[in-house]
Amino acid sequence: MKIVSEHIDKIVAIGKRYGATRLILFGGVVARSENTRDIDIACDGIPGWKLYEFAARLEEELHIPLDVMPLSPPSRFTKYIEMKGKALI
Hints:
This protein has 89 residues and is an alpha+beta fold. The protein has a single domain (5-87), classed as 2-Layer Sandwich (Beta Polymerase, domain 2), CATH 3.30.460.10. The chain contains four helices and four strands. It has helices at 5-17, 28-31, 50-62, 76-84, and strands at 22-26, 39-44, 66-70, 86-87. Strands 3-2-1-4 form a four-stranded mixed sheet, sandwiched between helices. Helix 1 packs antiparallel against helix 3. The longest helix is centred in the N-terminal third of the chain and has 13 residues, at 5-17. The chain is globular and about 30 Å long. The two termini are 22 Å apart. The mean pLDDT is 90.
């Protein structure tokens, strides 16, 4: 799957509407893996159930499967995402 600048623009715009303070793209899309089937996004600033609403809105708008996860609380995995991912916000 190839992610294009229009996808990034929508992800950032929708993230800001939901209150995202950080969005990081990670996983196969960043690694440019040909076997990637979804977009992986980690975020801060979107509380509780709003995170699930954000993920659903993205999937509806982009028509691409997504995995969305919070960056808080920090863990070894979130630290890895911060190091290897691509910051969008």
